[in-house]
Request: fold
Amino acid sequence: MILSYNINMSKENDDISDADLSLRKILSQNIRIFRKNLHLTQERLAENADISLPYLSDIEHCKTWVSDKTLLKLSKALNTTPSELLNENIPPVEIHLKENLIADLLLEQKKQISKAVSDICDETFSKLLEL
Reply:
C-alpha cells in the first residue's frame, strides 16, 4: 500500500484523491506528534533524518508525500516504525503533553507528601526521645 502511494503522490498534485489526502494528513499529524513528544524542532528532526528542512516542513503541512526511504528515515529519527507513522489512532500531542504534565505533578506531590511525613516522623521521634 505504501508503495502505491509513493508512486502516485511523489509530487504535489492538484487532483489528489480524498484517500490520498487523508493519508497525508495522518502522516503529517503523526510526525508532528512524535516530534513534539521527543521535544525535537523541525530543524533537529530534519537533521536526524537526513532530509532538508523545507522538505520536512512540506511533509508536516501535507504539501508533499514521502518515498519509502524517507518514511524509514523519519521513523528511525522518531524512534518508531513506519506503520506507527501511518496509524490513524495516535492521540494528539496535547494528550501526551497533558499525561506527562499530570505524571510530573503527581510525582512532585508524592515527593512533598513523603517529605512532610518524614518531617513529622522525625519530629515525633525527637519528642519521644525527650521523654
In short: Helices lie at 2-8, 18-37, 42-49, 53-60, 68-77, 82-85, 93-130. Residues 93-130 form the longest helix (38 residues). The radius of gyration is 24 Å. The chain is about 75% helix and 0% strand.
